[in-house]
Design brief:
single chain; eight-stranded antiparallel beta barrel; 3 helices
Length: 177
């Protein structure tokens, strides 16, 4: 909790422009969602991995991440906060059907597979309307990330609807201790 409080204070001090303020608010929302999520049961997380024929994650992915991907002409930017084998994300994109930007939050569980770390998304929720489920029309994201022998990071997203997209991965910063 102290780490999250320090992060919140440092974000407020750094917010100098509109874009920085937007990113700061996203960071604050990620922290708030993560505090709620951090009480989740570790056995339940392991069970989710087993149900998907995966193992518990062994890699350290703690920190703030950005995942960018496109389907059709739509660009999605997901900001992730990961600690241990759980996390939260906020994905922003422009929804042509609604003629507005949408922000979708998801709960994340990290698992290990033979091809890399799998980040499974659950319970996508529109942050503006609190809409969830089938009426949301947003399928949960499922990222797979691996580092190749040459050091290059390769990632893709196959959402729950089966849509596949290559992902640009950026590590933004480590969690403050």
């Amino acid at each position: 909790m102290i780490t999250e409080t320090l992060f919140v204070r440092s974000c407020i001090v750094r917010a100098k422009s509109a874009k920085t303020l937007t990113n700061t608010l996203l960071g604050l929302m990620l922290v708030a969602f993560f505090i709620v999520l951090s009480s989740a049961d570790a056995q339940a997380q392991a069970s989710i991995c087993r149900q998907n024929s995966l193992q518990e994650n062994r890699a350290n992915f703690d920190g703030y991440w950005e995942m960018g991907f496109s389907t059709g002409a739509t660009r999605y930017i997901a900001k992730l906060l990961i600690k241990g084998n759980t996390g939260v994300s906020i994905t922003e994109y422009y929804d042509d059907n609604l003629s507005r930007k949408r922000r979708i939050k998801q709960v994340l569980v990290l698992c290990q597979s033979t091809v890399g770390v799998v980040i499974l998304g659950f319970r996508p929720t529109d942050m503006d309307t609190n809409q969830t489920g089938k009426s949301l029309t947003y399928s949960a994201d499922n990222f797979v990330i691996s580092r190749q022998p040459d050091g290059k990071v390769v990632a893709f997203n196959r959402d729950d609807a089966g849509t596949l997209a290559q992902v640009d991965v950026k590590f933004l910063r480590a969690l403050e201790r």
